[in-house]
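Changelog-adjacent note: as of this version, every example in the card shows the full chain rather than a window. The one below runs 232 residues end to end.
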Amino acid sequence: MKYFFVTAMFLVGGTVSYGQVRQRAGKLFVNTAPGGIIEVKDMPVAEDLGTIYLEDDWSVGSIRLKNERDIENYPIRYDLENNRFEFNYHGQVRVLPGSTVTRFEYVDKNDQHRFYERSDHLLSEEPLTNGFMEVVVAGDPGLYLKIHLNILKPSYVTALDVGERSSKIVKKEIFYFLIKDELIKLPSNRKKFTVLLHSLGLEVNDYIKTHRLDVKDRVDLIKIANFLNADP
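Full-length structure tokens:
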């Protein structure tokens, strides 16, 4: 009789345990029906899509400091998010705050010379964020480029197993003309572009139409800036 009671208790206990399984999954408690299976799912590894650097690759370049000293001919790269420079100093990576730099230049992977200067001293219709602007074409008007960094945070919801787990890094190019020491933001729409330049006394509409230029394209904007600088 004693052995029968113990066996009965074991069977009853086993039935209760089997009938309801209670397991923590994240912040949720999951109850399965009899015979249900709780499946363990490996979570995808979160990573950044894109880069915070102006250029991913190290490029040989030079940096001019505020104290007018130069760091010359070292592999460098610029961190857009944190406004700081990294440079390879004899095999060691050194970090330099962007606030200590007035300008820098380097040769990119396409053997193109790139020159940048601080943007906080330039006049603009709208406030410019800290950092640097590329001097694409020097002159009056000069063509300048500002890279804006936008980091889209992950939208992943653990409870529902939906959404994007990775951060997405988006770089947006905004071009300006520097006219009489003031930056004028250039519209990406051709009609608005020509209307703006006409209001500034700059006639380029016929030139754009004749050569079928795209006012959103860097190469075509360089052609327009050079045309305006060559115009007597």
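Structural remarks: The chain has three domains: 2-32, 48-181, 186-232.
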